[in-house]
Every structure is written in C-alpha cells, then in structure tokens.
Amino acid sequence: MSRECERLHEKFSALPRLSDGYRKEQVPNNGLYVVFENGEAAHNTDRIVRIGTHTGKDNLPKRINEHLYTPNKDRSIFRKHIGRCILAKRNDPFLEQWEIDLTTRANRAKYAEKIDFEKLEEIEQEVSAYIAGNLSFVVVEVENKQKRLATESAMISAIAVCLDCSPSKNWLGLHHPNRKICNAGLWNVQGLPG
Ligand SMILES: [Zn+2]
What we know:
The longest helix is centred in the middle third of the chain and has 18 residues, at 117-134. The two termini are 18 Å apart. This protein is globular. It has one domain. The protein is of the alpha+beta class. Strands 2-1-3 form a three-stranded antiparallel beta sheet. It is built from eight helices and three strands, in the order αββαααααβαα.
C-alpha cells in the first residue's frame, strides 16, 4: 500500500505547482486537483493534504476557485474545515457561528440577528490568507466523470492507510473536531475509512 502512495506522491509533486495568483488557463476544464501545504512532508517530497474533483461538466476551474479563493465557507467544505481549525486552535467561541450554513434565504433570515457578520468576514479573510500563504496545488486533466471520481476515491484510500504519510505535529488540521481528518492527515472527510 505504501508503495502505491509513494508513487502518487512522486507523480503529483513533480507536476507544475500553482498557488494564489495562478492563471485560469493553467487549469483544465475537467480533472482533479491535489493540494500541498507548507511544513508537510512525506515520501521525501511534499505531502498530499487534499484531493478534490468535481461532478458538473467543465467545473474544475470554478471548484478550485470556490475552495481556495472565494470567501464563502458555505460553498466550500474545505474552507469550512480550515476555518474550524483556526478557530478551534485558539478556542474562539465564534466556531459555533462558523458552523451555521447561511446558504438558504430561510437560514439567513433566521440567523440574521445571531451572526456577527463583521467577524464572519474577518475569519473568511483569515482563511484566505492561510490558503494563499500555505497551500499550493497541482491539476491533472481527466475528462471522464466516473474516472475522476474513481481516481479521487482510490487516492484518498491509498493515502489514508499509508503508514509513511502522517501529519507534522504542527499541522493545522490536527485541531479539527473530526478525528478522521486528524488521523488521516487529509483535509477530506468523505471517502476516509470510518
Ligand atoms: Zn504515503
């Protein structure tokens, strides 16, 4: 199993690295993205900390932009995870408000008085700054949706069981309330073994 994981790390860490300020044309319309994080190493290279893809056709650029560079946690579980960890790390009680999904009009109305929107904006900016300062990613083109999803799932499984891949003791994800993230060292919950 760990030979498989090593092979994945060799392959993906060698691809052209993109980060904040990347150009749209560097991302194919359909495919997978693989994220690396400063301070995280494995298999003699950067450690893979997240794998993601998309279901909608031609949606890869949009998904990457939503996950990494659009300040709206409710459009991105990845941003939500990072915000949770930033807040949990310093015991910030705003965590409770961060958990509330404000996507629907009903929820926005229901929580209008309860949410500190100024603080929400601050945390979104903090998440963006963390991502811009610490994360980079690579992309691979995969046109076929079934193949994309199968590859994503196989990669998450291979990395999650690999004994040579573990988070550094300073990894932000260790502050996540969901132990699955901590144990696997991945910013993915879906697809991780229970
Ligand atoms: Zn590994």
